[in-house]
Amino acid sequence: MDAQAVLAAVEPAAVGNDPWWLVLAKIIATFAILVVLVLFAIVAERKIIGYMQVRPGPNRVGPWGTLQSLADGIKLAFKEDIIPTAADKVVYVLAPIISAIVALVAFAVIPLGPNVSVFGHTTALQLTDLPVGVLYILACSSLGVYGIVLAGWASGSTYPLLGGLRSAAQMISYEVAMGLSIVPVFLTAGSLSTSEIVGAQEQTWFLFTLLPSFVVYSISVVGETNRAPFDLPEAEGELVGGFHTEYSSLKFAMFFLAEYVNMVTVSALCATLFLGGWRAPFGIGTIWPGANENWWPVLWFMLKVLAALFVFVWLRGSLPRLRYDQFMHFGWKVLVPISLVWVLLVAAMNTLRRELDFSTRDVMIAVGVVLLAVLALSLLVPERTKKEVDARDPNPHSDFPVPPLDLVVPPSPRLRPQVPAKVGGGADGSSGEDSPADAPPSEASGDTTTGKGN
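== NADH-quinone oxidoreductase subunit H ==
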């Protein structure tokens, strides 16, 4: 497919020649789309999880509870703003602003549709188109780590600091896997521009030709956005509330907004990279030629984004939270090696197709033979039995603080038997009552176990 055919639907020139009022209208429309999708996602998440758990969910504010998230946002905006005494006030205020702004501007390069006519001006349904648009989104997601780390550090408290450090380690680790998963998309499309990647999927979505990349990307973005079952930075049983424990009012709402905007952005990027972008799904474009023209592609794109958001909610309502060491092990020792091997295979397939004029069928057969050979070699390697493992490592859980099985817990000091009072007078002519020095600890201090005097 030549470059002219790829760029037939969306021309980069149509993006940069817009009048100022059209650019301003695009900015307002992009911001409005993100805010509306965030409000919808919050209500939909609570309703869907409610149905999964056989309960109604929010149903008081607005028709069927649809305005509940708007009411929550207004409530957060008008609540008292508390700044901790030990906080670094400047950084404490800037951290949620950084997270929210970076999350919002990342959506600027996502194409929502082809060229359309707006009041006589032909423009693309995209705020801007960059030759390195996908790298721009990755850069924005990398900058989002700063807001979380600075929020944990500037709070002046232990638990937010631990939550910020854990979140930084998690986001950086899974961002590596996410970046490697989209490298085959660049190699196949021959461009980093989001509009050109959509144009390259005119015949076949990359979901089918690059399925391993889609699977790794789908798992990585769940960890990148700190969503369940990978919501380790906000593990309530360990870190209270994570990096935003000390935040309240509008600042907490900005972190909340940034999390859901990031969900929308990675869902839109998934639709752009693997699901054909704004093109009609399920072959509708072949049956109805006008499905990919005018404003109809916006509908197809939004349906794909909503489907991806539903998967986020589905995972949260279905899977338990992972242990942190299992989570990091899965990212570095499973997702990253799989992504590296798949990048090498895609590069080899492209080289064979271009240099040796191999057909796609021949390339797929060659890759299948290589994979079968690797599988056969792995089966020939003898697996260690349980006895061998126990002989080499008698305590396989020695790295974790597991208490011994013969642990005996001593009784509580408060449950010691009380010393009975003496009867009769003493030898020194004193009364027969105990002196404060001889009394039990709770009576000598004048306090009982409930903290009150006798």
